[in-house]
Amino acid sequence: MRTLLPYQSSWVQDAAPLALIEKSRRIGISWAEAYGSVMHASDDLGDIYYQSYDKDMTRGFIEDCAGWITDLNIAAGTVGESLLQDEGRDIQVFRINFPKGRKILSMTSSPRGFRSKGRPGDIAVVDEAAFVDNIDEVLKAALSFINWGGRVRIISTHNGQANAFNTLVRDAREGRLQASLHRVTLRDALDQGLYSRIAAVTGQPDTPEAAAAWEAAVRARHGRHAAEELDCIPSAGGGAWITWEQIMKAEEALARQPDRSAGTGPIYIGVDVARRRDLWVAAVVEDASDALWLLDLITLRDAPFSEQRAEVRRLAAKYRPLRILVDQTGMGEAVVEQYQEDHGTFTVEGVLMTAPRRLDVATALREAFEDLRMRIHADEDLRNDIYSVRAEPGATGAPRLVADRAGTDGHADRFWALALAAYGAASVSGPWQVTPGAPRQMAAGAGIQDFSHLIDPDLPVVRSPLFAGLNWR
After folding, report:
1. pLDDT of residue 411
2. Do residues 42 and 151 share a domain?
């Protein structure tokens, strides 16, 4: 029997034109929102337009709605799918129709999905709003629902003090915005029965000692981010460039395939150069057909340049990478020249990390996480490095990326090495054929049949595809 906990019931029953909730992660608010949406649509009160930042969230919400429909024995159609065009993107929309003509639509964040909507009784829901890329435009489109007698419900964990969601919460709390505001921390949820519900579902013992151990384990997993993720305290500065939830999904995806063997796609190595204060890091990534797999991650501290150079030689001999991308900024200039002497100028590419290029490199990694194409092993140092990079508004309007040193052993060095490898993979397209144990070769294309002059037989790597007239396979 599905029942709502007190904080869930309080949220569902709030009929304010604009309702906000700042919450701990994974306490069942979206699940409760699904119940409210089903009841609203089935009672013929209005349509529901739900948006969140990725397809897993939108699919999960519509599945929760379907679960409530089944449990409550409500008449409704099966889940359907369609596509919405928004600024050149295909947005997948999940849909449930009700007999009286009402509907629930669930989609990834899209301002167009809210525009020209919002008739009396309709509801716009923005879930995990702090993590939506175009949050300002989405909120602007959603808030127009109120003008025509609709309602807006905004749900999120925090993602930095400078985030638009935190601005809304602060304005509501200080009276500058007319809105109903809810706040539910992990401790609030536990006090109102969350652990008992978890114990009933998982079969764990429902005792105070078990509840305390469970909470301690959750807080340990979140580490220094527990205040923001669990206690509704936004971190200083901008929001995380890659969210904690996205990092967890990348770890979980790898954990589900522990026996997978490498060798199905080209290899890229990203190198973040350092000598004394920070870490030297090399990230080895395979671009397989299903995802980018982190195969190896090497960190060196205070290592001589000769030792760093030897490590790249070892990695090149072991993995035969297609490209090695190296941060060429500052001391990296001489390092790139040395690596090119060893592995060739087509294989080794120096990347000057100007502000625009730095954003391009970081975006390649972020998109891999957002598209659920990143696979990383569970490692606290790697996790903290990835999460330490935050976006702040820049002078030109473009995001400015900053790294929080607190709680890390460097300056996001693992993040940048991994990002360089992802950037290398994103810069090359085309189908690949890789024969395990054989040198990586190029397929003929664009009328060129003989590529032997582009392959150095003395090197365990092939040349870079950054020249015209070649299709790589």
Report:
1. 78
2. yes
Model confidence over 391-439: pLDDT tens digits?
Answer: 877 766 677 888 766 555 667 899 999 999 999 999 864 444 444 444 4
Q: What is the bridge-based pairing of β-strands 323-327 and 151-156?
A: unpaired
Question: What is the rounded distance in angstroms from the CA atom of residue 63 to the CA atom of residue 84?
Answer: 20
User: What is the C-alpha to C-alpha distance for residues 201 and 216, in angstroms, rounded to an integer?
Assistant: 19
**Edge-to-edge strand ranges of the sheet holding 123-127:** 80-86, 89-97, 103-108, 48-52, 123-127, 151-156, 18-23, 180-184
Cβ atoms of 7 and 192 closer than 8 Å: yes
CATH code of the domain in which 404 resides: 3.30.420.240
Structural domain for 372, as ranges = 244-454
Computed over every residue of the chain, the mean pLDDT equals 84
* Residues forming beta bridges with residue 271, ordered by sequence position: 282, 326
β-bridge partners, 393: 399
Are the C-beta atoms of residues 13 and 32 closer than 8 Å to each other? no
Measure the CA–CA gap between 372 and 357, rounded to whole angstroms.
23
Other beta carbons less than 10 A from residue 290's beta carbon: 14
Instruction: Write the pLDDT tens digit of every residue in 69-103.
Output: 999 999 998 888 887 766 666 778 999 999 999 99
pLDDT tens-digit series, residues 320-340:
999 999 999 888 889 999 999
Distances (CA, A) of 74 to 68, 77, 78, 257: 8, 10, 12, 38
pTM above 0.85, yes or no: no
| Whole-number Å distance between alpha carbons of 380 and 267 | 24
Structure confidence at residue 345 (pLDDT): 92
Q: Report the distance separating Cα 276 and Cα 272, nearest Å.
A: 13
Number of alpha carbons in the 13 Å side-chain half-sphere of residue 170: 11
CB 76 within 8 A of CB 99: yes
Looking at residue 89, what is its pLDDT? Answer: 66
Is residue 300 a part of any domain in this protein?
A: yes
Residues 155 and 250 occupy one common structural domain = no
- What crossing angle do the helices spanning 413-426 and 355-370 adopt, rounded to 10°? 80
Max Cα–Cα distance, the chain, nearest Å = 73
Q: Which residues pair with 92 in a beta bridge?
A: 83
Question: Residue 90: how many CB atoms within 10 A of its CB?
Answer: 9
Ranges of the chain whose pLDDT falls below 70: 1, 85-89, 116, 237-238, 255-263, 395-397, 404-410, 428-473
Same domain, yes or no: 186 and 248: no
In a domain, 460, yes or no: no
Radius of gyration of the chain (CA): 25
Q: Which of 191, 211, 226 is the last residue of a domain?
A: 191
Residues 120 and 250 in one domain: no
Q: Cα separation of 3 and 218, whole Å? A: 24
Contact 38, 74 (CB under 8 A): yes
